[in-house]
Amino acid sequence: MEEKSKNHRALLNPGEENELEVFGYKTQNLRRAFCLIGFVLTCGVLLLAFIWRPQWWVWANCIPCALQEADTVLLRTTDEFQRYIRKKVICLYLSTLKFPISKNPEELLVVDRHSVINQAVSKPELKLRYIQVQKIRYVWDNLEKRFRKVGSLEDSNTCYDIHHTFGPGLTSEEQEVRRLVCGPNAIEVEIQPIWKLLVKQVLNPFYVFQAFTLTLWLSQGYLEYSVAIIILTIISIALSVYDLRQQSVKLHNLVEDHNKVRVTIVVKGKGLQELESRLLVPGDILTLPGKVSLPCDAVLIDGSCVVDEGMLTGESTPVTKTPLPHTENTSAWKSHSLEDYRKHVLFCGTEVIQVKPSGQGPVRAVVLQTGYNTAKGDLVRSILYPRPLNFKLYSDAFKFIVFLACLGVVGFFYALGVYMYHGVSFGNTAPMALLLLTVTVPPVLPAALTTGIVYAQKRLKKKKIFCISPQRINMCGQINLVCFDKTGTLTEDGQDLWGTIPTADNCFQEVHSFASGRALPWGPLCAAMASCHSLILLDGTIQGDPLDLKMFEGTAWIMEDRKVNHCKFGMSDSNVVIKPGPKASQSPVEAITILHQFPFSSSLQRMSVVAWLAGGDHFHVYMKGAPEMLVQFCRSETVPQNFPQELKKYTMQGFRVIALAHKALKMEKFSEVESLTREKVESELTFLGLLVMENRLKKETKPVLKELSEARIRTVMITGDNLQTAITVAKSSEMIPRGSQVILVEANEPEECAPASVTWQLVENQENGPGRNEICIDIGNSSVPDGERGSCYHFAMSGKSYQVIFQHFNSLLPKILVNGTIFARMSPGQKSSLIEEFQKLNYYVGMCGDGANDCGALKMAHAGISLSEQEASVASPFTSKTANIECVPRLIKEGRAALVSSFGVFKYLTMYSMTQFIGTSLLYWQLQLFGNYQYLMQDVAITLMVCLTMSSTHAYPNLAPYRPAGHLLSPPLLLSVSLNVCFTCIVQICAFLYVKQQPWYCEVYRYSKCFLDNQSNFSTNGSAERNWAGNATLNPGSVLSFESTTLWPIVTINCIAVAFIFSKGKPFRKPIYTNYIFSLLLISALGLTIFLQFSDFQDIYRRMEFIPTITSWRVLILVAALAQFCVAFLVEDAILQNRELWLLIKKQFGFYSKSQYKNWQKKLAEDSTWPPTNRTDYSDDGRNGFYINRGYESSEQIPKEKLELEGQATEQHFWSRL
Fold first, then answer.
1. Where does the sequence pass through the membrane (predicted)?
2. Residues near 320 by Cβ (< 8 Å), separated by ≥ 6?
3. pLDDT at residue number 302
């Protein structure tokens, strides 16, 4: 159907996370009329089907057509879920604007030649077509024949375009055009009306089925149970509606103030104009007078400012923003240099806390994105439209419900057959058949399945772990790999200064220790530490990055923020001035003025400043950053020859090492400095030395990692810090156990004459000398001993190597990941990518970080745990108010308990349905069924109470070395239900047949006289005989019989028994007796059932619709029920829950896990050439992604023929891409 018309299909957001397929359709009136008739004829059932399946609505009402002609589009996600969304195509007419618009196709509507608006408006009609998908507006591009996002400036604009096209401001006419096309600059979260939320809940397929069930039961007189279920359903729906409403209100309040900001913009030809922020459009010039909350994303073009990005990054550290440079190259503004473009962008929702005009007027920025296209809009959309969960439990549960429903359909036809065979009228047959249909799917199922999650959420809240995605709690029970950030997560957030190692004459000098108490001596190194930072003075307090703050405090200098006037250099500006403090060492320089900053970027791993030393006649550049990165910008003759060894000496001890550099700028005017590019400033520097900082492990880190290791949960470190430091921290925290080998994986990009390469180097531990508590890292030529192959080795790599392997050695990636433990110098994007790659190997991944650069990874993981209390933590499913990793095992324990509880409740409800189904089917054989109060006892007093209390058992305090089953359709769980169904089926059928063999038995509704005669044999009350005799003759569907009296206690005791059997405690939950309410409930229910069975009270028997039987028969029924319980308990506990037995069965029959990572582990364990050590492999991208190990021979030494032969003979050196 979707291929009938040309240009019928296109992609929306190609290559992005929210990629969608879009199909064009045109509505046909005749089809619509037929559908309306269908709605009426099916009493709304067809309409419900269309609501649940929007694609059916489109296919029924419309015909396929080209997208440019469509009035309706059908969108389909490109992920594994393939969800459909229906949207109407809306038309806008620019002729509605109050000023004339040129209809000449050659004339641009807006000044930006790259803008999609110019291509989206059809002339001369001045018509524009758009769709609104997940709060984002997409307009139809008539040139490219596809829908394109609108509401932001095009990425193809150059720096020159940004400055010169938008710098003067937009005309008021162009603003109106953009306003109409792009929509308002507002992040509006509608507070959903209660009636709308109610309708949405009630139209859930399960509630619709439940409404049908309850209607049927009420029509048959099952008043009490129906009312109980109705009350429970109303409470459940009310709580859901209340919760959704509260979330809606909370989110609305979170963004409400965003839409009420007053801003000042520059209008071309009119000057400054104040207006509401909702009227801003992309391209407007925004002026920033001082402190303000940003209502849009904007790129800074004049002046600089300091912003608090806590809302986005999770860290309230001030960030300095610099203006977009005035370059005239033709490349896109985001890629004008290697610099991170984010340093020029002011993000929506962040707070400007300080502005620094350039001297040419106020701080100005060009509006980049508005509304939901902004950073804050994206954050809100991630909450409104979360990524769907791919968890087997939920898909298995759906399959199980479908199976139960199919069984109900079988029961329906069975009932039809039996009743029609006995000649019962259709009016009586239909309700009874439908009744059996509804027995198999318990109406309490939705409430029961969420109960365990609710209890777990409350327990987590008590432990200060908050959750915004409760469905992920069950997923936490399957976590088998946890990734940790290092700084602030495994180690203390703050750094302690250890010492400096200055250089002179190309050699490292004596270490200056801060512990000595001596002031840092004056010199270029001291000047660099005092000035090369992004600290600001706010209300008399120095604020900024903790590392910068610690480094600055180490100099004992002080900061002032004042107006400095240096006419000599042609500058007059508000700059940060640094002066020696009372405790600082003597300095010939009275003050240092920071004139210009190139801020730190995690992708660049460095920052630099241009400063002026009071009394000097030129400017100075100071730079700090990662040592490996910084030396690339220094003159080689200034870097000591033993630099690598000196760096390793400290990083292998876990120290954080920062390198500093300097150069003098021979310039006379400040305006020349302002126009300098970062590439020009950061070149030909002089290496000054190293700053060594101590970063201690948190006291909770080691015990938690040990606990996770004992539970066989892999731990991985993903950090932006130095690789050697990360290895040392991993060893000291025992993330890498003692005795394990570490293999460094270093990959290099392809060069002109050489392909991409990957080198494997074995790291050896050696003591550095007697009495020294230091570890030296030596890269030797030894290899991993054959006896130690397996999991005794760990791969460590940098973000650069990860990127090269990802691009050029993709087939190697899974092999590295199954034993990769340390990933250092990772950028935020690489962190997210790594977690996604782990997920592809079928790991259930947890990620624990402190916000900042971890936000993307926290969202990508199955369970992201943020240790930050900032607003950004709403993008993470879990937030811990306790800033250490103790929250990780706690969350996993609660996840396991919730998962086991969900399985237990599901198994119980399945057994309860099957037990009732079997009993009811047997009674149907003779046109009978259980009584109203008999059902009420089973459904309300037992099942309802069990479902509400069964999941409240607390998590077991220790983590087991294995996970609970993650699939409902796994053999132990299926066998558990199947065998229990068999047991109850056998007992019920035997009881049903055996009672007929008793000498006192008679078919009550056929032989009322026989019934009276048998009654007289054991009844002690003559009046009771007469009372029972009056009710002896019954219609089809009657209750009173020996069969129902016999089967009811068996069914009821079985419900109690399976509730006990399926409430297993250790190893994932505490023992059942610790759940006092549940235990008391089971004991009470069992006592009440036995009491009702053995009591001889006439009123009880009349209400319960029992027939008195001899005591020996009642005892026999009880013994049979208890025997069934003993057999079921023994089978469940000794066989089905016997993990060792199942492992033995799997081994004997050759069953292996389907998980990718386990298959790789098995393959690699059998591979004698793995892990590779002390060798180099080269990519061969031209040969379908193969790579070859060329050992240590150079490409010149290997003849072409030899390479070809080697390629054919040595298979172990070839790996095809996955």
1. 33-52, 225-244, 397-421, 433-456, 905-927, 933-952, 973-995, 1046-1063, 1075-1095, 1115-1136
2. 304, 305, 306, 343, 534, 536, 597, 599
3. 85
pLDDT at position 544: 77
**Phi, psi values for residue 435, rounded to 5°:** -60, -45
3-state class (DSSP) for residue 1186: strand
pTM: 0.76
- Are the C-beta atoms of 955 and 895 separated by less than 8 Å? no
Give the model's pLDDT for residue 1022: 34
Omega before 124 cis (within 30°)? yes
Residue 40 CB coordination number (10 Å): 10
Higher pLDDT, 151 or 388: 151
Tokens of 766: 């050696």
CA atoms within 13 A on the CB side of 1191: 7
Tell me: cis bond preceding 1067? Omega within 30 of 0 counts.
yes
Q: What are phi and psi of 427, to 5 degrees?
A: -60, -35
Dist. CA 52–CA 42, nearest whole Å: 16
β-partners of residue 354 are: 306
Largest CA distance in the chain: 125
- Residue whose entry in the numeric block shows the structure tokens 């971890």: 854
Three-class DSSP category at 85: strand
Contacts of 1112 (CB under 8 A, 6+ apart): none
Do residues 788 and 815 make contact, with C-beta atoms less than 8 angstroms apart? no
Q: 465 to each of 128, 243, 852, 991, how far by Cα in Å? A: 48, 19, 19, 52
DSSP run (H or E) holding 651: helix 643-651
pLDDT tens figures, 303-352? 888 887 766 655 556 777 888 877 776 777 776 654 567 778 888 888 88
From first CA to last CA, the distance across the chain in angstroms is 33
Nearest to 747 by CA among 432, 1172, 375: 1172
In angstroms, the CA 1021 to CA 244 distance is 59
Strands 363-369 and 793-798: unpaired
Six token digits for residue 1177: 């492999």
Residues 6+ positions from 1 with CB-CB distance below 8 Å: 59, 64
Q: Apex CA 260: angle with CA 256 and CA 263, to 5°? A: 145
The token duo for 1076 is: 């006092």
485 given a catalytic annotation: yes
On whether the CB atoms of residues 298 and 366 are closer than 8 A, the answer is yes
Which pLDDT score, from 0 to 100, does residue 779 have? 37
Tokens encoding 550: 């610690």
Q: What is the mean pLDDT of the chain?
A: 79
- Please calculate the CA angle 451-391-87 and round it to the nearest 5 degrees: 95
Q: What is the spatial distance between Cα 554 and Cα 548, in angstroms, rounded to a whole number?
A: 10
What per-residue confidence (pLDDT) applies to 1210? 32
- The three-state DSSP-derived secondary structure of 594-639 is EEEEEEEECCCCEEEEEEEECCCCCEEEEEEECHHHHHHHECHHHC
Neighbours of 1137 (CB within 10 A): 14
* Single-letter amino acid code for the residue at 859: K
Long-range contacts of 570-574 (CB under 8 A, 24+ apart): 570/669, 570/670, 570/671, 571/359, 571/595, 571/670, 571/671, 572/359, 573/356, 573/357, 573/358, 573/359, 574/356, 574/357
Kindly name the residue from 161, 378, 485, 573 that is annotated as catalytic.
Answer: 485
The Cα 280–Cα 296 span in angstroms is 8
* Token representation of residue 985: 């089926």
At 940, is the secondary structure helix, strand, or coil? helix
Secondary structure string (H, E, C) spanning 512-537: EEHHHCCCCCCCHHHHHHHHCCCCEE
Report the distance separating Cα 223 and Cα 230, nearest Å. Answer: 10
Give the angle subtended at the CA of 1117 by the CAs of 1116 and 1118, to the nearest 5°.
90
Cβ of 819: how many Cβ atoms within 10 Å?
A: 20
Token pair for 440: 């198999």
**What is the secondary structure of 280-302 as a DSSP string?**
--TTPEEEE-SSEE-SSEEEEEE
Whole-number Å distance between alpha carbons of 796 and 383: 35
